[in-house]
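Students often ask why inverse folding is considered easier than folding. One informal answer: many sequences map to the same fold, so there is more than one right answer. In these notes we will look at a single instance of the problem. The structure comes first.
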């Protein structure tokens, strides 16, 4: 079977070139006679891979020495809990913005361990819009301000980093990291599950200002403290070596393909094309406020939901998979991360037009 156009929200499409490299190296990696999965994380060849991956990520994103970069496990979900435990002291208030399912989950975990101030909640728009900035209820001396850069399920994105004064900004960037250039210096912390734009599942990237973690996490077991993993080069325990290696291959692929500026141009063009196709039709609709539409996850509904199953069946037969929307939203969702090429968008639009012509 040939490769399909994979619109999965995550784990998601990876660049074919990266997969081919991994395949070629699988049973005899760098002349070791072993796969990369079979060597010690402390061996010289693996440490070289780990260090190169970190250096490439720093170069791609422009991460200065003021920040620690960590390759961890536990997913973005574990970060929902580790962030309040590490970046806020007992009794300190944490500010959290809710714009959809993921920031809501983060809120719940924050509330489990710290005093949380809900800055604003997009519930009134059924999470199709971000509450206006002048309605936000911010805390002057909050330990940090947390938001989700892109709600993967609802397709709601904040395209600008919120200005919250001197309070450190913490962003769940799981579904937008590496999709365009960003100014890392505007953030106290960025974190992301890898399984969208970085590599396979099992790896979580944390980029955090060193001064924020220097004295945090008092009373926590060592393994839950950011400082432990930062000091140990993310090797306080055995890291997810294969996922780290794969991430390194993806970073290298992005570098060879024009870096984040090129990714940003392509992603913006891909999203614009698909939104234009949706908006030009009465048969398809996207509910999200235009200024907050995601570049990465584009949900859309059919005028007649009874046709959803047929749409999914026929699109799959035409070589396009994972278009089913999240169960909480329904309809369809096209996730179009870095590794999803413009040809996939063109194929999807052509299919959508033909489907509307025969069923509309
Ligand atoms: C924006 C966002 N945050 C958090 C998560 C949870 O990530 P994980 O499953 O790696 O814990 C996801 C998963 O898709 C996500 O899209």
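Output (designed amino acids):
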């Amino acid at each position: 079977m040939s490769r399909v156009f994979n619109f999965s929200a995550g784990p998601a499409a990876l660049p074919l070139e990266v997969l081919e490299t991994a395949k070629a190296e699988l049973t005899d990696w760098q002349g070791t006679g072993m796969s990369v999965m079979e060597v010690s994380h402390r061996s010289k060849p693996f440490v070289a891979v780990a260090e190169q991956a970190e250096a490439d990520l720093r170069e791609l994103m422009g991460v200065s020495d003021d920040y620690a970069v960590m390759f961890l496990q536990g997913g973005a979900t574990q970060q929902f809990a580790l962030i309040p435990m590490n970046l806020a002291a007992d009794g300190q208030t944490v500010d959290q913005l809710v714009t959809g399912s993921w920031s809501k989950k983060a809120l719940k975990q924050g509330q489990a361990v710290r005093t949380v101030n809900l800055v604003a909640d997009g519930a009134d728009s059924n999470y199709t819009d971000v509450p206006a900035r002048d309605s936000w209820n911010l805390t002057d001396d909050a330990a940090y301000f947390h938001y989700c850069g892109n709600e993967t399920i609802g397709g709601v994105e904040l395209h600008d980093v919120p200005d919250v004064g001197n309070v450190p900004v913490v962003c769940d960037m799981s579904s937008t990291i590496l999709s365009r250039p960003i100014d890392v210096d505007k953030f106290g912390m960025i974190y992301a599950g890898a399984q969208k734009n970085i590599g396979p599942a099992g790896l979580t990237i944390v980029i955090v200002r060193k001064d924020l973690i220097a004295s945090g996490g008092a009373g926590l077991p060592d393994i839950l403290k950011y400082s432990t993993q930062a000091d140990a080069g993310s090797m306080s325990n055995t890291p997810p070596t294969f996922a780290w290696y794969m991430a390194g291959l993806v970073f290298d692929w992005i570098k060879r393909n024009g870096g984040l500026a090129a990714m940003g141009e392509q992603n913006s063009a891909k999203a614009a094309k698909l939104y234009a196709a949706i908006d030009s039709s009465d048969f398809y609709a996207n509910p999200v406020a235009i200024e907050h539409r995601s570049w990465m996850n584009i949900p859309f509904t059919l005028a007649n939901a009874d046709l959803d199953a047929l749409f999914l069946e026929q699109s799959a037969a035409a070589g396009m998979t994972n278009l089913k929307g999240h169960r909480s939203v329904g309809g369809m969702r096209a996730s179009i991360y870095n590794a999803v090429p413009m040809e996939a968008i063109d194929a999807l639009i052509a299919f959508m037009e033909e489907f509307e012509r025969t069923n509309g």
